[in-house]
Amino acid sequence: MGVEKVRLIDLPKIHDPRGNLSVIETGRHIPFDFKRIFYLYDVPGGTTRAGHANVKLEQVIIAMSGSFDVIIDDGFQKVTVHLNRSYQGLYIPGMIWRELENFSSASVCLVLASDYYDEGDYYRNYEEFIQAVHSSSLQ
Questions:
Q1: How many C-beta neighbours within 10 Å does residue 93 have?
Q2: Cα(70)–Cα(66) distance, rounded to whole angstroms?
Q3: Annotated catalytic residue within 29, 52, 82, 134
Q4: What angle do CA 136, 118, 83 make, to 5 degrees?
Q5: To which H or E segment does residue 49 belong?
Q6: Per-residue pLDDT of the chain (139 residues; tens, 9 = 90+)
Q7: Is 52 a catalytic residue?
Q8: Most exposed residue of 19, 55, 77, 137, measured as fewest CB within 10 angstroms of its CB?
């Protein structure tokens, strides 16, 4: 896995003069069935969120309101993706370090996760993540 596996997903957008509507159906619009949904809001200016990698968990991150940057890192390459459309999600597979920063005022970040919370699935120390990535690339 690497940053090339991370990709933007366009979600269905139904135009209506009364307001647009987007829908996400589990297993249909994203590449996994989601078991958990969480969201970040009221993030103070200058704050960085996330700062971890998951071993197996897959996620789709959506800027429901406002905008923010997602820095993705596979241990060899870093890429920054700017999210600012509520009908577009960023798919992140396992073993990708991610950091969220540059939150605009009143931004809301929605995350769809492939499984329930499991602390054992997290790398929270960047050096341990790098060591795991580099040791697995030698095999």
A1: 19
A2: 13
A3: 52
A4: 80
A5: strand 49-54
A6: 588 899 999 999 999 999 999 999 987 899 999 999 999 999 998 889 999 999 999 999 999 999 999 999 999 999 999 999 999 999 999 999 999 999 999 999 999 999 999 999 999 999 999 999 998 876 6
A7: yes
A8: 19
Half-sphere exposure of 43 (CA within 13 A, CB side): 24
Name the token pair of 126: 């960047």
Q: List the one residue out of 36, 6, 10, 20 whose CA is nearest residue 113.
A: 36
CB atoms within 10 A of CB 73: 20
Region of residue 75 (left: phi > 0; alpha: psi -120 to 50; beta: else): left
What domains can be seen in the chain, in order of their start residue?
3-137 (2.60.120.10)
Contact 65, 39 (CB under 8 A): no
